[in-house]
Design goal:
Elements (H helix, E strand, L loop, with lengths): L1 E4 L6 H10 L4 E4 L2 H6 L2 E4 L5 H10 L2 H10 L3 E5 L1 H5 L3 E2 L13 E5 L10 E6 L1 E2 L14 E6 L1 E5 L5 E7 L1 E9 L2 E4 L7 H12 L2
């Protein structure tokens, strides 16, 4: 069973629907026992970094996430869920993220000719041999909605990049921890293949 963590951060049903389309058994839950016993765990999310961390702590989920990640359960963060895995975000200075991976989340600089948030389809430069991108072309198109972007500390954690104003670390892979800044559940056949690859790990 795949546990989709419910911490009132939206975007849960579309992830559930995509997994259901793939024939995967999943459940939206905030029960620690169900999350701990799940075969895989997904942390979706849209919204603000600080509010999300407050909710994770108030529901007792921050420690549960650290537990399942540390014991080797395959874990996928999506959009805000990617950002929360890192140490901090300029969106909410002083609020610590989950700190599962080293890096920080930075605001896009105001740049003439570019709209913020970054919203729409962009091609990825996917790293060779990266597990989430098996069976896909080297520059797949995926759907983004975000005003802040990841700057991972360790280049070897970066599974895919994209260009929007600057170089964006769009996906990460580190042992059992995977994450996408883009929305695979809203990225058509490409996104379904990415989710399928995660489910088949």
């Amino acid at each position: 069973m795949i546990a989709i963590i419910d911490y009132d951060a939206g975007n849960l049903k579309s992830v559930e629907n995509a997994l259901g389309y793939l024939g995967e058994k999943c459940e939206i839950t905030r029960e620690p026992g169900k999350i701990r016993s799940a075969d895989k765990v997904i942390l979706p999310g849209v919204g603000a970094f600080g509010d999300a961390m407050h909710k994770l702590h108030s529901f007792g989920l921050a420690e549960v996430i650290r537990e399942v990640a540390e014991k080797g359960t395959d874990f996928l963060g999506i959009c805000l869920g990617l950002q929360l895995l890192f140490e901090s975000s300029e969106e909410t200075p002083g609020v610590e993220g989950l700190g599962l991976l080293p890096g920080k989340v930075i605001a896009f600089p105001e740049t003439k000719g570019y709209k913020i948030p970054h919203m729409g389809w962009n091609s990825l430069e996917a790293g060779e041999g990266k597990k989430l991108f098996r069976g896909l072309p080297s520059n797949p198109y995926v759907y983004f909605v975000h005003s802040y972007y990841l700057q991972a500390e360790n280049e070897e954690d970066v599974a895919a990049k994209t260009e929007y104003i600057t170089t964006v670390h769009a996906s990460v892979e580190h042992e059992n921890i995977f994450a996408c800044q883009f929305h695979p559940e809203k990225s058509g056949e490409t996104g379904l293949q990415i989710l399928k690859n995660f489910c088949e790990l």
